[in-house]
């Protein structure tokens, strides 16, 4: 029986950390080769547990000796080893290190489909528009013309405002009715309302004890926006958390709350 070849992804874990886990959301099938050293901090317990649950794609851990550029040499050598075995349809190096491009260019000339991608987002640089020489900032302040106001006299006994006696016409103004204190009325209305405790928020606080109040509020907002017909699809909720909080943090949050999702939505 013939099997179609699938692509191979070689992960530079020292370079991209755990951001490569976003590849697990792809629809295509592939085989993973994760190059790690003993100093790798990206493979924590939560991530390892998630990898154990992965059934669609085969995952291989390539242990590399620690040292300067040691992992780069291991990955480049292993790439050549896999190409020699000729069991994959394409080869993808996952790293933001441009040093791999020379090796990739060589294999491309030999007729193999090899490329490099970067799953780690690059920082956005702010573009500054250069100022021309001898160019000075000139601020023009516009003076507002104010017309002189006529002098008025207040007759406290009759509660009327009378214009200056030098003018012929006089204007009588009625005293305005007192304004009700709306603030005190609002406070009374709030006291009458009985505040119901937010059970869903208390549940999230008990599950995400190590997270900040802001993160817990963001998780609650996301869960409340999930359509009712999707609330039973935990894979849908997992992908949404990864998109919102990035791969490592989103995965950690999902692992802590996934068993209580049914209880969360029943409390609403």
Architecture blueprint of SSEs:
Layout: E1 6-12, H1 13-16, E2 31-36, H2 45-53, E3 58-63, H3 70-85, E4 88-94, H4 101-109, E5 114-117, E6 152-155, E7 160-163, H5 182-192, H6 199-207, H7 213-225, H8 234-245, H9 247-257, H10 261-266
Parallel strand pairs: 1-2, 1-4, 2-3, 4-5
Antiparallel strand pairs: 6-7
Helix pairs in contact: 6-7, 8-9
Give an overview in words:
It is a single chain. The protein is an alpha/beta fold and 268 residues long. The protein has helices at residues 13-16, 45-53, 70-85, 101-109, 182-192, 199-207, 213-225, 234-245, 247-257, 261-266, and strands at residues 6-12, 31-36, 58-63, 88-94, 114-117, 152-155, 160-163. The strands form two sheets. It has a five-stranded parallel beta sheet with strand order 3-2-1-4-5. β4, α4 (101-109) and β5 (114-117) form a beta-alpha-beta unit. The longest helix is centred in the first third of the chain and has 16 residues, at 70-85.
Which strand-content bin applies to the residues?
Answer: 5-15%
Provide the CATH topology of the domain at 6-117: Rossmann fold
Overall pLDDT metric:
77
**Most strands sheet:** 5 strands, parallel
Indicate the overall shape. Answer: extended
């Amino acid at each position: 029986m013939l099997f179609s070849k699938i692509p191979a992804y070689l992960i530079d874990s020292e370079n991209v950390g755990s951001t490569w886990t976003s590849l697990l959301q792809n629809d295509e099938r592939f085989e993973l080769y994760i190059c790690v050293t003993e100093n790798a901090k990206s493979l924590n317990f939560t991530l390892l547990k998630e990898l154990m649950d992965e059934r669609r794609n085969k995952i291989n851990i390539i242990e590399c000796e620690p040292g300067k550029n040691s992992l780069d040499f291991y990955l480049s050598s292993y790439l050549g080893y896999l190409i020699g075995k000729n069991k994959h349809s394409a080869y993808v190096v996952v790293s933001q290190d441009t040093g791999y491009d020379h090796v990739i260019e060589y294999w491309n000339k030999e007729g193999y489909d090899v490329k490099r991608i970067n799953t780690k987002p690059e920082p956005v640089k702010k573009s500054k528009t250069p100022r021309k020489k001898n160019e000075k900032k000139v601020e023009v302040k516009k003076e507002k013309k104010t017309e002189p106001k006529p002098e008025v006299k207040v007759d406290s006994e009759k509660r009327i405002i009378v214009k200056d006696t030098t003018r012929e016409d006089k204007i009588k103004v009625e005293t305005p009715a007192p304004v009700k204190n709306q603030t005190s009325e609002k406070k009374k209305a709030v006291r009458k309302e009985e505040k119901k405790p937010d059970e869903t928020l208390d549940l999230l606080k008990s599950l995400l004890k190590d997270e900040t109040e802001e993160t817990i509020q963001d998780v609650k907002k996301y869960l409340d926006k999930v359509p009712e017909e999707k609330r039973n699809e935990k894979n849908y909720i997992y992908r949404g958390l990864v998109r919102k909080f990035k791969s490592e943090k989103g995965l950690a949050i999902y692992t802590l709350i996934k068993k209580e999702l049914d209880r969360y939505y029943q409390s609403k």
